[in-house]
Structure formats: C-alpha cells, structure tokens
Amino acid sequence: MVSEEQNHNVSRRQFLTYTLTGVGGFMAAGIILPMARFAIDPVLQAESAGDMKAVASVDDLTDQPQRFDFSYEQEDAWVTSEVTETAWIYQEGDEIIALSPTCTHLGCTVGWEANQDHPKEFFCPCHGGRFKKDGTNIEGTPPTEPLHKYEVEVQQGTVYVGKAESQV
C-alpha cells in the first residue's frame, strides 16, 4: 500500500506553472529592487551633523542686526543645486545671535528697521508682522511665534551657522 504522501504527483502543467512563476518572480525582483533602491536611497541618507556654513567674520559684526547672505550646495535626493540663504546676525556682548529672515506668519521676508514707524524692529511688509531685536514676535501682530534662530559656532574669527530652529 502506497501512502498518500508518496502518491502525490505533480502534473506537467502544474510543474511549468510553478517553475515559470518562480523564475518570473526572481526576474521581476531583480529588475524592480535596484530601481526602488535608486529612487529611495538618496532620500533616506542622513544629514551630516556638521553642516555648518561660513557666513561672516566676527570683526564685521556690530550690536545691530546686519544682513549676511551665504551660499552652499544642497543635495536633494539625486539633484545637487546651489542654495542662497540669509541670516540677520549681531553681537550682544560675547553672544552672537543669528536669526532667520523668514516671517513665522506666512513665510515672507522680514527686514531690520524696514518701517520708519517701527524703528529697532524686524518688520514684515506683507502683513505687518513685527519682531523685537531678539526675534520675539510682538503681540497684536500676525506672527504667532518668534523668528527662528540659527545654530551658531565661531571658529578662528569666522561665524558659522547651522540649521535654523524654532525658539519655542
């Protein structure tokens, strides 16, 4: 008497179906996986911790915010482009403060003493947003949070800025 396990025969049609499905699956994986990795891998790359950009000389700083533009190459997934950003930088005693010029209301650009009616303040001409010298938003104006502050380092007399982060 033959057990059922030994009597299990695979038809020619089933064998070809299993074989072609397996080979087709391996071929599809061999084609799709490299394309998926090419598309996704650059996005998953970690940003390096030391991405500080040289902006100004400490000798150029005063106690009033000054506009400094700086450029760097940005790699966005698989595209590299030149990016120009701005920072409002001033020195308060031994501390160097660098503020983002982007209004926290709707992303417009603020200027230091840009409005004669509001001296010694950052002013956003689009919606009347106002900020104190330290970037704090003035109550009763549209912005709901202070200007973002750049991470600052000084090395050999040069001011380096990192990523702008919220002050709240």
List keywords for this structure.
35% strand; elongated; 168 residues; 3-stranded antiparallel β-sheet; iron-sulfur; 2Fe-2S; oxidoreductase; oxidoreductase activity, acting on paired donors, with incorporation or reduction of molecular oxygen; 20% helix; single chain; alpha+beta; 1 helix; Rieske_Fe-S_prot; Rieske Iron-sulfur Protein; 2 domains
Brief write-up:
The chain is of the alpha+beta class and 168 residues long. It is built from one helix and nine strands; from the N terminus they run αβββββββββ.
Structure characterization notes:
- The chain has a 3-stranded antiparallel β-sheet with strand order 1-9-8, with no helix packed on it.
- It is elongated and about 95 Å long.
- It has one helix at residues 12-44; strands at 53-57, 66-76, 79-92, 95-99, 111-112, 122-124, 129-131, 149-155, 158-165.
- The protein folds into 2 domains: 1-45, no CATH class; 53-165, Rieske [2Fe-2S] iron-sulphur domain (Rieske Iron-sulfur Protein, 3-layer Sandwich).
- The N and C termini lie far apart (81 Å).
- With 168 residues, it is an alpha+beta fold.
- It is built from 1 helix and 9 strands.
Main sheet: strands, sense, barrel: 3 strands, antiparallel
Question: In angstroms, what separates the terminal alpha carbons?
Answer: 81 Å
Count of beta strands? 9
Side by side, the strands of the main sheet go 1-9-8
Radius of gyration: 29 Å
CATH topology of the largest domain: Rieske Iron-sulfur Protein
Mean pLDDT: 83
The CATH class of the largest domain, by name, is: Mainly Beta
The backbone outline, from C-alpha atoms, is: elongated
* Helix and strand sequence: HEEEEEEEEE
Fourth CATH level, the homologous superfamily of the largest domain: Rieske [2Fe-2S] iron-sulphur domain
Number of domains: 2
Beta-strand content bin: 25-35%
**What structural class do you assign from the helix and strand content?**
alpha+beta
Q: Uncertain regions: pLDDT < 50 for 5+ in a row?
A: none
Continuous helix count:
1
Level of helix content?
10-25%
- CATH architectural arrangement of the largest domain: 3-layer Sandwich
Organism: Salibacterium salarium
GO molecular function: 2 iron, 2 sulfur cluster binding; metal ion binding; monooxygenase activity; oxidoreductase activity, acting on paired donors, with incorporation or reduction of molecular oxygen
Function: Component of the menaquinol:cytochrome c reductase complex. The Rieske protein is a high potential 2Fe-2S protein.
Protein name: Menaquinol:cytochrome c reductase iron-sulfur subunit
